[in-house]
Amino acid sequence: MPEPSAAPSRRSARRAHRAGSSEGVHYPRWFWPSFSLPAILWLLVLFVLPFYTVISIAFGTVDPIFRSPLPVYQPWYWSTEQFGETLGKVFGIFSPVYIHTFQYVFIASAICLVLGYAIAYYVARYGGKRKALLLALLISPFWISYLMRMLAWINLLENDGYVNKFLMFLNVVDRPVGWLEGRPSTVILGLVYGYIPYMILPLFGFLDRIDVSLLESGRDLGGSPFSTFFRVTLPLSKPGILAGTIIVTLPMFGDYFTNNLLSGSPRTTMIGNLIDEAYSTTGQGPEMASYVLILMALLIVPMLYYLRSTARTAAGR
Amino acid sequence: MTQETIVRADRSAPPTSVGVRRGLFRRDPWRKPRILAAITWGYLAWSLLPLVIAIAISFNSSRSNSLLHGFSLQWWWSDPTESLWHDPELHAALFQSLRLSLFTVAIAVPLGVAFALGIDRWHSRPAKGFNFLMLLSFVLPEIVLGISLFLVFQHLLTFVRLGTTAQILGLVTYQLAYPVIIVRARLLTIGREYEEAASDLGAPPRQSIRRVLLPLLYPAIFASAAIVFADSLDDFVTVRYLSGPATSEPLSVKIYNFTRAEPTPAVNAAATFLLVTTTIAVVLGYLAYRHATRGQRTGGVSEFANV
Amino acid sequence: MDEAVAKLEAGQQADVFFPTIDVLGKLVAADLLQPLNHDLLPALESDNWGVFQDPYYDKGWRYSVPYTLYTTGIGYRRDHIPDDVIAGRDNPWDILWDPQYAGKVGAYPSYRDVMAIALMKNGITDLNTGKESDLEKVRQDLLALTTDVDVRISYSGAYSKLPKDLFWLMTAWSGDMAAGWGYAPPYTQEAYENIGYWFPPDRRGPVDNDLIAIPKNAEHPALGHAFINYFIEFQNAMDNFSWNAYQPPQNQADPDTLTTTEGLYSEVTTWAAPAMYVAPWMPSAVVRQEDFDVGFREGPLTPEVDDHWHDIWEEFIAGART
Q: Per-residue pLDDT averaged across B196-204, rounded?
C-alpha cells in the first residue's frame, strides 16, 4: 500500500503519475478505473450490445410464416437485401419525409438558439437579484413532463380553443384556424417549445461563467455594445453554443411524438414516425432496424465533432 | 492646454464610446436592455401560461378539453368511472411510475457518480473512449435507445421479459449520463487540494474520498438525483417500447395513449398529479441538499445549469 | 393488432386475448392459443347466432368465440351532408375522395379497413386480394386521399373529431358511429342527430366480427373461460353493447328492435339523454345474420400479400404523394 509522502522522490512521482494523480496523493493503478467499471459494464451490455443487435436484425432475415425478424449475429452471413431496400426507400418515396424533417429541425434549432441565447444572456448578465428566481423558472420545464407541456398546447390549439378565440378577438382571423391539422408551423412550434429549455441551460452555464471584466474591458477599450458582443462575448460562448445546439438538434431528429400529438396529417411525418410505424407493423423488423441505423449514420458526424471539441475544451481548462 | 480647454471638459456628460455618434448613448450604456428583458419575461409567460391553463382545465366542469366551463372536481374524484381517484387503471399506472423512478434513481445515481469519479482521475485512452460512449448515450435520440433495447430483450437477452425489469434497465441506461455530466462539472471546480490535504494528514485513499470528496459532491449528487427522478417519471419513449402487460404501463404512457385517443380533462388531472409529485420531489431534494451543504458556499440553483 | 400479436409472441402473459380473424390462424400455428373447453362455455351455443356455429376460420370454435360484429362504412355529419346526398351518389364510397370536403375527411389508422374501403370504391369485392392490378388501384387511391382531400389520420375521429364538427366524413365501423351519442357535446338530442352512418343498402360491404381467445400461457385459464362465458351471455353482452355500441351476435336480440330499445348505459350515465342501442336514424349500423351471407369478409392474408399491403400502407402513412 503506497504511503503518502510529503516530498515525493522522482520514482514515486513517476509512479504517482501513472497512478493518475500529479502530486501528493497516491492511489493504486486500479483504484480509479474500478470506480468506473460498473457503469462501463452496464453500458457495454445495455448500450453497445443492443446496437449490435440492431445491426444484426437490419442485416438479418425474416421468418417466412410469422414475419418476425430473425437476427443474424455472424457478420459473414449478413444479407444487405433488406437494408438496401430500405435505403432505396429513404432516397425514393420517403425522401420528402427526410427533407422536411431536416427543415423542421433546422428551423426549430435556429429559433431555439437565437431565442435561447437572448434569454440566457439576459439572465446571466442582467439577472441581478432575481437571478435565482429566473433560473428556477427556466429550469422548471425540466421537471414538468414533456407530455404535460404538449397537452397544454393541444388544449390551446384546438379549433375551439383559446388561441383561436384570442386571434378572432383581435380580428387577426375571422374563422378558427386548424392548428392541429397537419401544419408544419405547429410541429415546429411544438419542437421549439419542447426543446428550448435544453438550449437555455447550457448557454446560461457558459455565459454565467464568462468573466464580466472581460466584457467590460471590451467596452472600455472603445468597442460599441455590438462589437463587444460579436468580438468578445460570442467567441467566448462558442462551447456553450455548440453544446446547446447538439443537445437540442440531435434528439429532435428522433422525435416522433411531437408530430403524433400536434398533427393529424401524414404530410408532417418525421423520421421518428417512420421508425415508430415500422415498430407497430408485423414483418417490418429489419426495416425498422435499418431506419435506426440510417438515423445514427446521419447523426454520427455532428456527434463526433461535438465530442472532439468538448475533449479539446476540457483539455484546455 | 489652455484654461478654456480644461473648463470645457464636460464631466457631467456620460462616458461615450469613441467612434459612435454621441446622440445614441446619452442614456446609461450599462442599463438593463429592455428588449432582452421583454424577450425573457415574454418567454417565461409563453412557457408557463399554457401549463396554468392545462391545470385549470383539469378542474373543468364539462367534458371539453379546450374551453373552461366552470369549476368541478369530477375529473379528480367525483366522477364514478373516469376520474383520477376512481379509475383503477390510473392508480396502477401511478404506482408503476413511482416504482420505476425510485429504482432508476437508486441505480443510476451511484453508478453515474462512481463513473464520473473514475473517468475524471483515470487518464488513458480507454477512459476517453468510455467517456465518449457515455456522452453518446446522452445525445442520441431516445427512440434509438428504446428500439435497440426492445430488440435486445426480444432476441438476445430473452431472460429479461418485457415489463418492469426491462423498463428499469432501459431507464437507467438512458439516465446514466445525467449524474456523470453534473458530477464531472462539479469535480472540475473542486480540484485536488482537499484530497491532498486529507492524505497529507494521514488519511488512506478510501477515507479521503468518503469523508472529504463525497461531501463536497453532495450538491451535484442531489441535483442529479432530482433530475433523474423527474426525468424518469416523465419518460414515455423508452418505457413504452419496453412495456409488457398493461400493469407495467406507467402514467406517462397512459397519458400519451389517452391524448392520442380521446383526451378528457381526466388526462389533464393525471398530468397535473404527476407534475405535483415531481415538484414535491424536487423541492424535497433541494431542501435536503441545502441541509446537507449548510455552511458551504455553493452554486445553489445554478448547480442544475452545469449540464 | 400487430402490436398486440408482437407482445404475445414475445411471451407476455395474459389470461384472455381479443384477436381479429386475420391473425387467428397465425396465432394457432405459432402455438400461442389453447383450445377452449366448451363445457365451461354454455352460453356459446345457447345464446349466439347459428351462422356462427362453425365458421371457416375456426371450425367448431376450437380456439375462439365470436365477440362483436361490425360493418365498415362511412360516418358522416348529417347537418353538412344530408342523408340523401350521400345515399344518392352513384358510388357513395367515393365521397371520401370528393375535393369539396377537403380538410374534413378522416381515416382510421388501420390498414385493412381503409384499404378495404378503397377496394369497395373500385368495385373490387375480394377484400383479401393479392392481385397486382387491384393493389395498384388501392395504392393510387390512398395517395389520392392525401393529395385530393388532405386526409387526417386519427384514432379518435369517429367519436371525438366528427362529433365536434372537425371532420365531416370518416372511415368508420358501425360500432363507432352508433355510440356517437356518448361523445357529442353538448349532449342534446340535436347534437346526437347530427351523426350518421352509411353502409350499402343491399348490405354488400365489409362485414366482420372480433374474437375472444385464451393464450397458451394463461395463468388462470378457468377464470378466463368464466370471463368469456360471462361476456357472451345475453344480458351481459347487451350491457356491453350499450357501453361500446358494438353489437354482439345474440339470439335473443331482435335486430329490428335495436333502434327502439334503451340500453344499460342510458340508465347509468350522467352524460347521455335516453339512448337506444343503435340510434334510430342510422338503421344501417345494425348487423343481421343475413349480412354475413352477402357481405365480404376480411380474412387472413398470405405473408407476401400482407407485406405488399403493409408497404402500400407505409407509403400512405409517410405522406408520400402521387
A: 81
